[in-house]
Amino acid sequence: MRIFIDDKIPYVKGVFEPYAEVEYLPGGLASPGKLRHADALLIRTRTLCNETSLAQSRVRFIATATIGYDHIDTDYCRQNGIVWKNAAGCNADSVAMYVGCALKHLAQKYSFNLKDKALGIVGLGHVGEKVAAVASQLGCRVLKNDPLRQSAMLEGKTCSNNGLPYTDRAEDYISLDELMARADIISLHPNLHHEAPYASYHLFDEQRLSQMQKHQILINASRGEVVDNEALKKALQHRSIKAAVLDVWENEPQIDQELLRLVDIATPHIAGYA
Q1: Residue 271 CA to chain centroid, in angstroms?
Q2: I need a surface site. Which of 11, 71, 85, 102 has the fewest CB within 10 A?
Q3: With contact defined as beta carbons under 8 Å apart, do 249 and 265 qualify?
Q4: What is the rounded CA–CA span in Å between residue 139 and residue 119?
Q5: Of the candidates 60, 85, 110, which is a domain's last residue?
Q6: Catalytic residue among 51, 208, 230, 252
Q7: In the chain, count of helices (H) and strands (E)?
Q8: Among 129, 149, 223, 250, which one carries the catalytic annotation?
Q9: How far is CA 48 from CA 73, 86, 175, in A?
Q10: Quick one: 78 and 96 in the same domain?
Q11: Where does the chain show beta strands of DSSP type E?
Q12: Same domain, 254 and 119
């Protein structure tokens, strides 16, 4: 058996060597030619797994050391007998710590008390729940929006797809429009979906960003494509919103340099490493 492993995944060297032939490569260099001779992949988001990269390979198992899995064409995998697994919740504590630190930095910079602020959280999965807990400990009032989760609760489901029991109720959730009207700070934590009814690609596009108020702050530590970066840049340039914190960007690693200079906190997709 031959395993391709992203060389940026920590603590893995030596684990699989007794059982298989292992090759470590940068995730962004995992070309179809490199993957052709692999039986299994241990990757991160830099490695795209789709028909283009896998069609001529013998890959039968993919594990991604990430919560998100939008870099894996799950339909293609299912149709071709390729098993895949993600690491749900693996970095939830780290991302929550990142958001908590960002909140404290913003409070200090703009001279406000977090106990006077409402934090609106969009997406209450593993990460969103942890962020809610941290924000509550810091004194924020927490507003929740997650239509997929709320819908599941209304259908009578008592636990998530990962088997974790829900600890809140459907009535604890509000619409995105209401959240945007009431929140002082909005923190984004949805998975990236391109298709309705729960599409999150450019969830915060030009129209949505135009609904934000001048005192509001936007935090994105989910997926870069959840926010239209060009529209966000314009909002910051026109001072339509107070500030933004970005750990994720569209077109990583080729990010918008103008946007980089406009945000209050800019980090290179490292919130999960805190």
Answers
A1: 10
A2: 11
A3: no
A4: 10
A5: 85
A6: 252
A7: 10, 11
A8: 223
A9: 8, 14, 33
A10: no
A11: 2-6, 21-25, 40-43, 61-64, 83-85, 118-122, 141-145, 185-188, 217-220, 243-246, 265-266
A12: yes
> Residues 12-38: pLDDT tens digits?
999 999 999 999 999 888 888 888 899
Per residue in 172-224, pLDDT (tens digit) is: 999 999 999 999 999 999 999 998 899 999 999 999 999 999 999 999 999 99
Mean pLDDT of all residues in 80-101 = 95
- Rounded CA gap, 208 and 253, in Å? 25
Of 149, 154, 140, the closest CA to residue 187 belongs to 140
Residue 96 and residue 39 share a domain: no
Instruction: Check if the beta carbon of residue 52 is closer than 8 Å to that of residue 16.
Output: no
Catalytic residue, from 44, 149, 189, 269: name it.
269
> What does each C-alpha distance from 269 to 43, 156, 249 come to in angstroms?
16, 36, 8
Residue 114 contacts residue 138 (beta carbons within 8 Å): yes
Q: Where is 210: in which H helix or E strand?
A: helix 206-210
End of a domain among 36, 51, 85?
85
161 and 251 belong to one structural domain: yes
Q: Is 269 a catalytic residue?
A: yes
Report residue 196 as tokens: 């309705």
Residue 60 is among the residues annotated as catalytic for this protein: no
Whether the full predicted model's pTM is greater than 0.70, yes or no, is yes
CATH code: domain of residue 68: 3.40.50.720
Structural domain boundaries, residue 73: 2-85
Asked whether the beta carbons of 140 and 117 are under 8 A apart, the reply is yes
| Whether residues 76 and 105 fall in one domain | no
Active site residue 141: no
* Region at 211 (left for phi over 0; alpha for psi -120 to 50; beta for the rest): alpha
